[in-house]
Structure formats: structure tokens, C-alpha cells
């Protein structure tokens, strides 16, 4: 599976578990993408991504012009160890990056998307439109 743009889970739910969750986030994995949970309630959809050791500053979340939700993460670590008595120097560095994109379902209120980071889990709440919002989007066409 590619982590690039997909129909937000094949029009949201069909094949959800088979398609969205077929890669795991592990240090030894050639694909660096976190495990993802998608939860639906009456009020919202919630995307949860496991990201142990990451901070909210490591993430960038945006909604592009095509109503695609883009979640990106970049982290660089640089460790240096030196011991003059034993005459050794060790330096390790790592660069981790991933990007996941989702087409949003039509019932998402694009003005009411919130994100939070707690205990190594990034949560993105995609609130659903109210019935009043849905009704106001209907365009009436006058017949002349």
C-alpha cells in the first residue's frame, strides 16, 4: 500500500481494515508510517496515530484545496557519545519522515477539525456537519 492520497478509505468504510491498516510503524520496517485507528461516532470521525517519542512540534496537519487532509511528520535525532579514557567516539543520527493523506467524507465540517497529542498518540477529530449545515449547502435552481 502506498501512503499517498487514497479515497478516504474507499468512500470511508468499505475495506477499512484491509486497506488502511496493512502497514505497521516499526523501527525496522522499510515503511515508516504509524499505526492508525479510525473511529466514527454520531458527532465525529477520529483518526488516531501512534507516534511514541514524537511531539506535536514534529507534526504538520493541513487541509489542501481538494479537501484532502494531509498529516506529515519529520524528526531528526543526533546522539553523540565520547569517552576519552576508553578512546572512543560514537555518533548516531536518524531521520524519520512520513506523510499520509486522506480524502475527507462529504459530511465533515471542514471548519471544525481539531488535533491533539497525548501520551504518544496524535488524535485528529473531524466533526460532522449538523443537519442545518447540510441543508444550507443545497443549491436551489430557479426555473425560468
Put the structure in a nutshell:
With 144 residues, this protein is mainly beta. The protein has helices spanning 16-20, 131-136, and strands at residues 36-40, 44-50, 59-63, 68-83, 88-103, 108-118, 121-128.
Could you give the order of the helices and strands? HEEEEEEEH
Number of strands: 7
* Integer average pLDDT: 77
Q: Give the neighbour order of strands across the main sheet.
A: 1-2-7-6
* Count of discrete alpha- or pi-helical segments spanning 4 or more residues: 2
Helix content: under 10%
SS content category: mainly beta
At CATH's second level, what is the architecture of the domain at 16-72 and 100-136?
Sandwich
Which SSEs are present, and which pair or pack?
Elements: H1 16-20, E1 36-40, E2 44-50, E3 59-63, E4 68-83, E5 88-103, E6 108-118, E7 121-128, H2 131-136
Antiparallel strand pairs: 1-2, 2-7, 3-4, 4-5, 6-7
Overview features:
single chain, 144 residues, mainly beta, Immunoglobulin-like, four-stranded antiparallel sheet, three-stranded antiparallel sheet, 2 helices, 8% helix, 47% strand, disordered N terminus
Structural summary, described in words:
- The chain is mostly beta strands.
- The protein has a domain at 16-72 and 100-136: Immunoglobulin-like (Sandwich).
- The protein has 2 helices and 7 strands, in the order H-E-E-E-E-E-E-E-H.
- The protein has helices at 16-20, 131-136, and strands spanning 36-40, 44-50, 59-63, 68-83, 88-103, 108-118, 121-128.
- The strands form 2 sheets. It has a 4-stranded antiparallel sheet, with no helix packed on it. It has a 3-stranded antiparallel sheet with strand order 3-4-5, with no helix packed on it.
- Strand 4 (68-83) and strand 5 (88-103) form a beta hairpin.
- The protein is elongated and about 90 Å long.
- The relative contact order is 0.20.
- The model is unreliable at 1-31 (pLDDT under 50).
